[in-house]
Write a structure and sequence with these properties.
Low-confidence stretches: none
Shape: globular
Structural class: alpha+beta
Largest sheet: 6 strands, antiparallel
Strand content: 15-25%
Number of helices: 7
């Protein structure tokens, strides 16, 4: 990285650099986090999968919502993007009942203020996709909130726009993925505002870190599902009895290899591009 590029922040996965007053450079590392803790073991090529998939989706959803992407660098993990004023909201869309949504449903019969039919089982397909926002926690866990709480954070009109766009993005990607044998159980977006206060999609889009991807031919409602995301690593962490506090456990070689294989398969199924071809030419995902 050039000395002229200033490092301005670190996330669980990405490093953020300032290119100038209007542009940032996001570099996706191979770090993996489970239960909001970054683990000491990296997953080879994970950052390239996240960058390539995000670029693929950004290129195909501009008609739904503009995004921050300006260009990809040849390393396959670095994204040049527009600076935005990010909204203090995680924008989650759920098409299936899993994760914290399943936990909330078991406790209250609702998810983020959405009443759901009685008798649903874990991983059940919902009658229709639902928008379920959460807070952006600087430390610890994000917390699910209802629409009234979300409106307090971003305003009622902006929330209505964010909800509409989030649902449209989810439906577009879910249809694309289903045709390629993948169910998008849920996904998370982050939005910002540009200098003209227009809504812009930022961060990442439809990656194994921000989404639950399930193989359609193995889908069996009534319990957890096999997946093409970090669930494989999560399952290992739970199986060994980790208390989900820092520091996280080292991952054994077979979990590293299995997690990498799932990320790469998600990339190849969704983009229909060989991962090696992306490594050779990062801009192939934009075409």
């Amino acid at each position: 990285m050039s000395d002229a590029v200033a490092h301005v922040g670190s996330g669980k996965v990405r490093e953020l650099y300032a290119l100038d007053d209007e542009r940032l450079l996001l570099v996706a590392s191979d770090r993996i986090s489970t239960f909001d803790i970054v683990l000491p073991t990296e997953i080879p090529d994970k950052g390239r999968v996240l960058t390539g998939l995000s670029a693929f989706w950004f290129a195909r959803t501009r008609g739904i919502c503009p995004n921050h992407l300006l260009g990809l660098r040849a390393d396959g993990r670095s994204t040049e993007c527009r600076r935005l004023e990010m909204l203090p909201l995680e924008c989650v869309v759920r098409g299936y009942l899993a994760g914290s949504g399943w936990k909330d449903y078991r406790r209250t019969g609702e998810v983020c203020g959405h009443p759901l039919p009685e008798g649903l089982v874990e991983s059940a397909r919902l009658p229709e996709p639902i928008f379920t926002p959460s807070t952006k926690a600087l430390t610890g866990h994000d917390e699910n909130i209802d629409r009234a709480q979300a409106a307090e954070l971003v305003g009622a009109d902006r929330l209505a726009e964010v909800e509409r766009v989030s649902l449209e993005l989810y439906c577009f990607a879910a249809e694309h993925a289903a045709a390629r044998g993948i169910l998008v159980a849920d996904t998370k977006f982050e939005f910002g505002l540009d200098a003209d206060s227009r809504l812009v999609l930022g961060d990442e889009a439809f990656t194994p870190d921000s989404s639950r991807f399930w193989p359609a031919d193995e889908y069996r409602p009534g319990g957890p599902q096999p997946s093409f995301d970090k669930q494989f690593a999560r399952d290992y962490c739970e199986a060994i009895g980790w208390d989900k506090t820092y520091p996280g456990p080292e991952l054994p070689d077979e979990v590293v290899a299995g997690t990498r294989a799932r990320y790469v398969e998600a990339f190849e199924r969704l983009t229909e591009i060989a991962f090696d071809a992306y490594l050779a030419d990062s801009e192939v995902v934009l075409r």
